[in-house]
Amino acid sequence: MPALVMLPAPKAPFVATRITCLPDQLGMKQEIPPEDAFVVTLHLVGVGHHELWVRGRPSVVRGYVPGAISIVDLRDEVASYLGSPLDALHFYMPRALVDAVTDAAGLARVSGIACTPGLVDPVMGNLGAAVLALLDGPRRASPAVSEHLAIAICAHLVHRFGNNAKADAAPSPTVRRLRRMH
């Protein structure tokens, strides 16, 4: 599995991995140990049947179209069941990186990052295409390019899908400016 490991913040690696599961690799996957991080999946091809299991039970059972994303909070005990082949990008983001990005931008920290599973997000599709170019390219990009891409992905996810811990607080001028741009 090709992967890019980037370190845009001290001790907070951002990892982009292309995950491919062929028909002979289907079935229940090993549980992921809980940790304070998120995994975002960008489906590169359609998936007929996928199950996300949380705390030993199926939580989300569905298929995905190409370009669909899902976000999993790894603080829960999670595992996956693959009922059909998979070709996807997984983005691993520790909470320390999410906090570093919000702090650097002058934004309020978020309590979590979540979206409706299966949502097609064109921005993530384009950022994913940039990551694929780095993974599949003949030469690796410089660390600066990779780190900027990691920050862009994290910033987009925080801005678009972050759950603000202080939802009743007035947005900062930076947040208002970012919202007007989208």
Tell me briefly what this model is.
Helices cover 30% and strands 39% of the residues. It is of the alpha+beta class and 182 residues long. The N and C termini lie far apart (34 Å).
Q: Could you describe the 3D structure shown?
A:
- With 182 residues, the protein is α+β, with helices and mostly antiparallel strands.
- Helices cover 30% and strands 39% of the residues.
- It is built from 4 helices and 12 strands, in the order βββββββββαββααβα.
- The chain has helices spanning 95-105, 122-136, 143-161, 173-181, and strands at 3-9, 12-21, 27-28, 37-43, 47-54, 57-64, 68-73, 78-82, 86-94, 110-113, 119-120, 162-164.
- The longest helix is centred in the C-terminal third of the chain and has 19 residues, at 143-161.
- 25% of the residues are buried.
- Residues 166-182 have low confidence and may be disordered.
SSE topology:
Elements: E1 3-9, E2 12-21, E3 27-28, E4 37-43, E5 47-54, E6 57-64, E7 68-73, E8 78-82, E9 86-94, H1 95-105, E10 110-113, E11 119-120, H2 122-136, H3 143-161, E12 162-164, H4 173-181
Antiparallel strand pairs: 1-2, 2-9, 3-8, 4-7, 4-9, 5-6, 5-8, 7-11, 10-12
